[in-house]
Every structure is written in C-alpha cells, then in structure tokens.
Specification:
alpha/beta; 7-stranded mixed beta sheet; 11 helices; globular; RibonucZ/Hydroxyglut_hydro; hydrolase activity; hydrolase; NDM-1-like; ST1585_MBL-fold
Length: 308
C-alpha cells in the first residue's frame, strides 16, 4: 500500500491520513510473534490503519498489542475503533490516560470546546474501550513483542502528563510521540509542541534529556517519520523550546494579547523554519494542529502558573 513504508527491523510506518491528508500523523507496526501497533491515529483514520495492517498480513485476530504514547486524539482517537477491529489486542497507555480511554466523555467534551465543528472532520469521536482490555503503565514498563524483543516505556511528560516514550530493544528505535516536538521531513525542521494545559518547560526539557540518555539509534516521530540524526534533532528540540519560551515571556511583559503575541512570535521565528509552499494543505494542517497559536497558548498558560 502506498501509505505503508518499511523501515527495517520488521517496523513499518503507516501514514494514518489524518483528515485525508498525507504526511501529518504516523502510526507504526512492529511485526513478529506478537504484532504491535504504536499510535492509532484518529477515529476517522481507523479504517486506513486496519487496511494497512491487513496489507502486512495482520488480520483481526493477529494484533497482540496497541500502545499509544499519549491520549491526544491525533494519536489515540482511534483506540476504540481499533480495539473493536482487533479484539485480541491489549491496549497499553500510561496510567494517567487509561480512564479516558475507558470513558472518553470528559476528553471529548474538552476537545469539542477547543475544536468546535472541526472536531468531527479532523478527529471523529474516540469510542470507549473495555477497561478489562486496558493495561495502565507506570513511569516505566515493558511490552512483550515476542522472542525476547520488547518495548520499554519511559514516562516523559511536559507535552502531556500522560505521555510516554517507547524504546524497541531490537532496533534501538525511540517512539517520541510529541515530547520532542513536530518534525517536518521535507525541511528537517523541528518545531515545539506545547499546547495547554500540561506544558511545563522544566519537565519538557527533562523529557528530552531522558530521550538522549536512553541512547536511541533512531527517533520515530508521530509527526512525522524516522530521524537518524538523534543528537542534533534532540538538541534543536530543546533549543526551540527555550526560544519560544523567551519570546512568550517578552510578549507577556509587553502585555500583548494572544493574537498580537502570535504575530510577534511568527515574525521573530520566520527565519528559523522553511515556509510551506502556497496551497500546501498538509503543511496547513500541521500548522493548525501544532501551530504558533496553540503552542503559544500552552506556554502562556504555563507562565501564568506560580511555579513558572
């Protein structure tokens, strides 16, 4: 299938085609004795993911595990659908996100407030998953991939308090979720991902430092794709966070409202990122999902907290 890319080590990238567009959100299939799916994408992406897994020979009864780095809808919105499509799969998530997969009502209510009518087009509805099928991870944990291979999970909040990174013991791949930002493969840029309400600078930097200390061979970004330049990308991820926080502090000091602060940050970071071509819909959707406004709103929210 055109949305399935082999990455070596029995790992396959699946473009989940968020809102129908390519190159925005990736899931990853790890094949072997106990096939595993890392990230489901959205609810509306579930049929795309099912068909991609089928093209790899993973049928309804074959998938052993579904694991998500965190419960934001672009990563885990399809968990309920995928769990129904693959009834033998165990669903693995950090303990701070587990209850929201079993009962998504509060999460979906919050998402509706943020996205309004766009919620249905972009994400669809996260459906409940039987709580008996959910395994909640602590700050560390292990997922059996068969033949001695495993994913180890490492608590990495900062982007979200229910976020984990995952290391493949065979390949050295590190599934970074959103904790290292958003990687743009066409340009090599990495941008912050700091939405409210959970962003915390110290915790986010500590998560990036943890990722570096784990010594991965490769980073697998949910947005978007594999990166071999581990050290330089993690270094830039931390650098971008510090630059954006400094700019947010300046905007706050000048008592700018969010719209004016966004314009200021866009102007001052213009030379840091390649500009998308006019009409590039995928780039437009990446900007909408992790653009200046939501990222700056998350930083401002953190700056308003006494501990910041």
């Amino acid at each position: 299938m055109e949305n399935v890319t082999p990455l070596g080590g029995d790992v396959y990238e699946i473009d989940t085609r968020l809102a129908g567009y390519a190159g925005i959100t990736a899931g990853y299939a790890i094949l072997g004795d106990r096939p595993c799916l890392v990230e489901t994408g959205t609810s509306t992406s579930a049929p795309v993911v099912r068909d991609a897994l089928a093209s790899l020979g993973v049928g309804a009864g074959d998938l052993a595990t579904v694991v998500v780095t965190h419960i934001h809808l672009d990563h885990a919105g399809g968990v309920g659908d995928i769990s129904a499509m693959f009834p033998a799969a165990e669903i693995v998530v950090h303990e701070k996100g587990a209850r929201h997969l079993a009962d998504p009502s509060r999460l979906m209510s919050s998402a509706r407030m943020v996205w309004g009518d766009r919620l249905d087009t972009l994400f669809g509805m996260l459906k409940p998953t039987d709580a008996a099928r959910i395994r909640a991870l602590g700050d560390t944990g292990a997922i059996d991939l068969g033949n001695g291979r495993q994913l180890t999970s490492h608590y990495s909040p900062g982007h979200a308090k229910h976020h984990v990174g995952l290391v493949d013991s065979l390949t050295g791949d590190l599934y970074v979720g959103d904790a290292a930002g958003v990687y743009i493969p066409d340009t090599g840029d990495v941008r912050p991902s700091t939405p409210p309400p959970d962003f915390d600078l110290e915790t986010a930097l500590a998560s990036i430092a943890l990722f570096e200390a784990l010594g991965p061979q490769r980073l697998l970004f949910s947005h978007y794709g594999p990166v071999d330049e581990v050290g330089s990308i993690l270094e830039r991820s931390a650098e971008e966070l510090l630059i954006w926080v400094d700019l947010a502090k300046q905007a706050k000091g000048e008592q700018l409202d969010l719209d004016h602060a966004v314009a200021m940050v866009d102007q001052r970071t213009r030379d840091r990122y390649a500009r998308p071509a006019p009409g590039d819909k995928a780039a437009e959707h990446i900007e909408m999902l992790s653009g200046t406004e939501p990222n700056l709103a998350g930083i401002m929210h953190w700056l308003d907290r006494p501990e910041a």
